[in-house]
Write a structure and sequence with these properties.
Largest sheet: 6 strands, parallel
Order of helices and strands: EHEEHEHEHHHEHEHEHEHEEH
Strand content: 5-15%
Distance between the termini: 48 Å
Length: 339
């Protein structure tokens, strides 16, 4: 049997949800192969995601600064020289990481199989069946490098101690905490805000509702919800990412779209209910370790072209609000069932 490498470079340069999906796999790798050192190439902003992982460190990529473009990537490849990296796990497999591959010639460089052909067939309606989930695709990369990973019995980090700032925001409420993240990169993946307002209003009668989002427009909308209802707290724009992760670790349930906040909650072991619009769980992007029943789907009888795309960026004009086919009562009943 070939000797296992002692140091892996993991390339994960992408969006927040993608990076969050990586964390449970790296946690399993670290727990099941404690001798291996793992360096993750990602944006410095995402460093808090990895704070509880032993033997994992972050190498910050400044892809909009000194590592920008081909010459920047060449400079980045030279900076790896002193790290004694033996193998590379490319969990991104895009142009940027392919350029890095050229500069890191001589290293064992295994790239994720994203299943692009199968996903294309899924969105074109040629097949409608579950594809391999992304977490397993990540695990497959490490297996090719000699590290078999079992994802079937995951262990999650303990709840962190909340800072006084976080405690003050949550106001010491004894009620169960339901996180709600109503936004996504594309409107076609969002639950209509008028219906989400109904959901929040009803939930606030029995639970403390904690709202998540980002960006000026989203924060204004969430502030309006907070002002209108008791037991509703908007934390968007008030905390660092590290502090937001601490708050999420104290939630009882997260309600999210097919978006990053769902993946963040799931990586921390929180029950995560997801609402699906023109995308579909069959593409393999469900949050980690969440039962099938936690995914609330738009009506395919009414909208038979679902999924219209993998990421929600392509859809017919009349598919923009497919999630309106999911009743507020369905969402509320699911939360009460799990609470």
């Amino acid at each position: 049997m070939p000797k296992q490498p002692k140091h892996i470079l993991v390339i994960r340069l992408s969006a927040m949800g993608d990076v969050a999906m990586t964390v449970p796999v790296l946690r399993a790798l670290s727990q099941q192969h404690p001798h291996v050192k793992i360096t993750v190439l990602t944006r410095k902003f995402f460093e808090p995601f990895f704070k509880d992982l032993s033997n994992v460190s972050v190498f910050p990529a400044e892809i909009k600064g000194r590592h920008k473009g081909v010459f920047g990537l060449y400079k980045l490849s030279k900076e790896f020289k002193g790290l004694d990296i033996e193998v590379i796990a490319d969990l991104h497999n895009v142009l940027r990481s392919n350029i890095l591959k050229l500069f890191l010639v001589g290293k064992s460089f295994i790239q994720i199989d994203k299943g692009r052909k199968e996903k294309k067939a899924l969105v074109l309606g040629k097949v409608f069946k579950p594809l391999k989930n992304t977490h397993q695709r990540y695990a497959d990369v490490f297996e090719k490098l000699g590290f078999k990973i079992d994802l079937s019995n995951p262990k999650f980090p303990k709840k962190t101690t909340l800072s006084k700032k976080c405690q003050d925001l949550l106001k010491g409420s004894p009620k169960m905490k339901i996180g709600v993240a109503p936004f996504a990169a594309h409107e076609s993946k969002m639950y209509p805000l008028d219906l989400m307002k109904e959901v929040i209003e009803i939930l606030s009668r029995d639970y403390q509702v904690v709202l998540f989002g980002g960006g000026k427009k989203e924060i204004e909308i969430l502030n309006d919800f907070e002002r209108e209802f008791d037991n509703v707290i908007n934390i968007a724009g008030k905390l660092s990412l590290d502090e937001e992760l601490d708050v999420i670790s104290h939630l009882d349930i997260m309600l999210s779209m097919d978006s990053g906040n769902g993946h963040i909650a799931a990586m921390l072991g929180i029950k995560t209910i997801t609402i699906w619009g023109v995308t579909h769980p069959y593409a393999g992007f469900t949050p980690f370790n969440q039962p099938k029943a936690y995914a609330l789907l738009s009506d395919r009888k009414q909208f038979p072209k679902i999924p219209t795309s993998v990421y929600g960026n392509k859809y017919p004009d009349n598919y923009k609000e497919v999630t309106r086919s999911i009743l507020p009562e369905t969402i509320i009943n699911k939360i009460k069932e799990l609470a």
